[in-house]
Amino acid sequence: MAKMTVYHGGYQPVKKPEIRKGRNTKDFGYGFYCTIIKEQAHRWAKRYETKVISIYDVRMNNNLNIKEFTEMSEEWLDFIVDCRSGKDHNYDIVIGAMADDQIYNFVSDYIDGIITREQFWVLAKFKYPTHQIAFCTQDALKCLEYRDCEVL
């Protein structure tokens, strides 16, 4: 299993990641979210007064139930709509593009029937690449090893 580096943007170092269930639903449901794109973790951290990027080494456990979306697709859109609507899934880890604020506005418009699916795809062109990994179970969190943090 190859080792990779991932980043989590927040307001404090997260040495022991947890899965917290809050009011807001996210693209891939409840989980601890990271990315392989450091600049994206910076954008996540910019929401806070104190900006911290936690850095982890990850070794994927091939025995886990992992779902990877290699591109934005119909299946990806349906999965995000389900998760953002509160529907649970049985994956330990979900990997794929992120529906950032602009894209999620289009998802919301699609859910509300304001735009069609075809109109969504016309509007859903990313200005920059996005990536996220949701560690959705306790077993998935065991793949993460805290390395360090950067205070911005």
Q: Can you count the beta strands?
A: 7
What's the number of domains?
1
Uncertain spans: none
Q: How would you describe the shape?
A: globular
Describe what this molecule looks like in 3D:
- This protein has 152 residues and is α+β, with helices and mostly antiparallel strands.
- The chain has one domain (3-151).
- It is 27% helix and 25% strand.
- The protein contains five helices and seven strands.
- It has helices at residues 38-45, 74-84, 101-111, 117-123, 138-141, and strands at residues 3-10, 32-34, 52-59, 66-68, 93-96, 132-135, 144-151.
- The protein has a four-stranded mixed sheet. Strands 1-3-7 form a three-stranded antiparallel sheet.
- Helix 3 (101-111) runs antiparallel to helix 4.
Secondary structure layout plus pairing:
Blueprint: E1 3-10, E2 32-34, H1 38-45, E3 52-59, E4 66-68, H2 74-84, E5 93-96, H3 101-111, H4 117-123, E6 132-135, H5 138-141, E7 144-151
Helix pairs in contact: 3-4
Key attributes of the depicted protein:
5 helices; globular; 4-stranded mixed beta sheet
In short:
By secondary structure, the protein is α+β, with helices and mostly antiparallel strands. 27% of the residues lie in helices and 25% in strands.
